[in-house]
Design a protein that fits this description.
Elements: H1 2-23, E1 38-44, H2 49-66, E2 71-78, H3 93-105, E3 108-112, H4 113-118, E4 131-133, H5 136-145, E5 149-151
Helix pairs in contact: 2-3
Length: 153
């Protein structure tokens, strides 16, 4: 019986690999040959400034590869501990610089009002340009229901 299960796994693996090879590479939907307007959002809930910086870098990389001409909408949803790196007082210089570039370029960074209330953070304590959203979790749901690509690096 063990031999039969092992053979099934091997045959299944070979078939799956063959299907991938036969299908060939997927075409990127943001190329000149295959243009598409993308709607995507990134999601941040961690308080570590290095993590926030990495996510902001991922957002910039997305823009660099896809190109603004192929982006219909792009957001970063921030809630819970993830709001802490965006408090102006004592902000990490790297986080501030990257966020400012993205905000100036047209990225929306949504800051959860529930988080602000629970952590006693006033909107004016955050860096300039963030957009207050009623709930980070609800915003994630809304964007997914609208067909946005969900990216959580």
């Amino acid at each position: 019986m063990k031999l039969l299960r092992w053979q099934t796994v091997v045959v299944g693996g070979v078939l799956a690999a063959s299907a991938v090879l036969v299908a060939g590479p997927a075409e990127a939907s943001h190329t000149a040959d295959n243009p598409k307007k993308h709607r995507a959002f990134f999601h941040l809930t961690e308080s570590d400034p290095q993590r926030a910086s990495a996510v902001l870098t991922n957002v910039q990389n997305f823009i660099d590869v896809v190109g603004w001409k192929n982006i219909e909408a792009l957001e970063l949803v921030v809630h819970g501990p993830g709001l802490k790196p965006f408090i102006a007082k004592g902000i990490d210089a790297d986080v501030k610089a990257k966020a400012e570039v993205l905000l100036t370029g047209g990225v929306t960074i949504g800051a959860c009002q529930i988080t602000m209330s629970r952590q006693r953070i006033k909107p004016e304590e955050l860096i300039e340009g963030l957009t207050a959203i009623p709930s980070g979790v609800v915003r994630v749901m809304e964007l997914q229901e609208k067909g946005y690509a969900y990216i959580r690096p």
